[in-house]
Amino acid sequence: MTDHSDQADSAEQELRYARVRAAMAERGLDVLLAYGPGWRRENIRYLSDARVAGSAALVLVPAVGEPVAFSTRPADLGVIAARGWVTEVARLDLGGAALTDRLRDLAPSRVGIALRELLPQALAEAVTTAVPSAEVVSATGLLDDARMVKSDWELAQMRRSAAVCAAGWQKFVDVLEPGLPEYRLVAEVEAELKRLGAEDNFMLIASGGDEVTGMTAPTSRLLEEGDMVRTELTPQMNGYWLQICRSAVVGKASDAQRRSFDLFNEAVEAGLSVVRPGITAHEVAVAENDVFRKYGYGEYCGATYTRVRGHGHGLHLDETPIIEGNHTVLPERAVFIVHPNTFTPIAGYHVLGDPVVVTATGYEVLIETERILFETPREVAA
Predict the structure, then answer these.
(1) pTM confidence score
(2) How far apart are CA 245 and CA 11, in angstroms?
(3) Which domains are assigned to the chain?
(4) pLDDT tens-digit map of 125-171
(5) How far is residue 382's CA from residue 375's CA, in Å, rounded to a whole number?
(6) pLDDT number for residue 380
(7) What is the Cα–Cα distance from 48 to 58, expressed in whole angstroms?
(8) Could you write out the DSSP letters of every residue in 307-351?
(9) Are 176 and 250 in contact (CB under 8 A)?
């Protein structure tokens, strides 16, 4: 069970708000508005520790004083208030009347809006109408940076997610057999994750041979002997997402599938080998891609065949991308997955990766699942 004791809650809440307000002071912000549309609720969860379901929500954090939460869904207001981190709540309507009243009372000179890029025009206009002389800036990076450094409490949640990842993958392997539709395989995994307490799960899959170029939602395709079945499964536990990337073969792996695994495993190891506090996402991606370049597969590292070489984890399932050109610094206590998932002509699209937390001396892999090319049925030692 999650530790929701008064002492743990108070310490975690104080840590988060102290971190956020320190960042606000550095940027000269009098007010922070953390916006959360229906598909991006990570900032609302970070500041309220409440699971909301409305189409839009906001948490207003003044430089001094108590925060206020707003949601388009009345039921969310009770959920947020009951959780106790933000006790003042109000309905969020298209005109933002309650929000504008509060902003007028605060009379800020400088307002930062996290996810300002996604803010509906009606709410953006409500803010500028309420405080027409205030400077309004994006604060997306402020909260991204604050959430990147995980507390002990957060790492405990993510270790729970890691255990559920491993259990989900074990179920995936256990039910693999010829003739099974992809959607049945995913349904079995989803049922296991929910049985273990997952709030949600993001999962992609692909099955087949060297013609497979990427993953999708499950289809009705029936698994065949010799198929390599690739997946990334990403359960959410108490708000925190974590991902495992693996591939398995229905039956015995071919020489090509084994060679593909060896290539991808070397790339994972190369990415992990450079992880330490202060490394950049760019440097991790370069380490992975250089393995492909070494063997003549560099063209498969670009946008034509792949998206990223990993990404951050936390209250959002797909945080800072591990990709060449992204010079975001990965500090101690950042959590992300190293996964060089891409297509090559060796055996088609391959999926392999482990989530890690950056430690003072390097990294810690958060899952215990073996990094091997799984085969089914697996031989049992005598």
Answers:
(1) 0.93
(2) 34
(3) 6-148 (3.40.350.10), 152-376 (3.90.230.10)
(4) 999 999 999 999 999 999 999 999 999 999 999 999 999 999 999 99
(5) 18
(6) 45
(7) 10
(8) S-SEEE-SSSSS-SB--TT---EE-TT-EEEE---B--TTTS-B-
(9) yes
